Amino acid sequence: MRKQLLFPFVLFIASFSLLSLVIPKNVQKKVTKEISKTFEVETFDLEEIKISKDVNDLLVRKIEGEKLFKIVVKNELIGYAYVDKAPSKTDEFDYLILLDKDLIIVKTKVLIYREDYGGEIGSKRWLKQFNGKTSKDKLKYQKDIMAISGATISASSMTIAVNTFLQNLAILHQNKVL
């Protein structure tokens, strides 16, 4: 009897964790729109970049699930996309980092912000600070990246997220993943 109850529970937990690895449709639409606009292309393919366990263990923060992609047009690499979440005061927000084929940030975008306060981190003007950054850059909030009054936690969190990604980028490049 116990085994009969345990199996559906384990199946539910396993299916829930698999679903959390897939980009939700509302986020996917925004990612597609930003890629089209940034790279000035109508059609493209997103190819998930698989990271081996050995390389993932080297990363500052593991990249698991559908988060890192090659952007390909007519079998030619034009850039990379990274989609993830970062914590805000009481929730989290979804963000996108777009890189050119030389691994330089060309755009960052807050895709979905779920708080009443702090949404200013989604402004183009503030996010432009990340453009041009590479894996050689080390970003510090309030020094390299301007602070935002009323969005201290979210702005700091976005800076940490981009900085962590840039550190991971160096490791991925060294290990010939990118």
Automatic annotation (TrEMBL):
InterPro entries, alphabetized: FMN-bd (IPR007329), Ion_transpt_RnfG/RsxG (IPR010209)
Pfam assignment, any one: FMN_bind
GO MF annotation terms: electron transfer activity; FMN binding
Keyword Flavoprotein attached: yes
Source domain of life: Bacteria
Record-level GO BP terms: electron transport chain
Occurrences of domain FMN-binding (ranges): 96-166
Gene Ontology CC terms: plasma membrane
Keywords for the protein's UniProt record, in alphabetical order: Electron transport, Flavoprotein, FMN, Phosphoprotein, Transport
Protein name per its UniProtKB record: FMN-binding protein
Organism: Tenacibaculum lutimaris
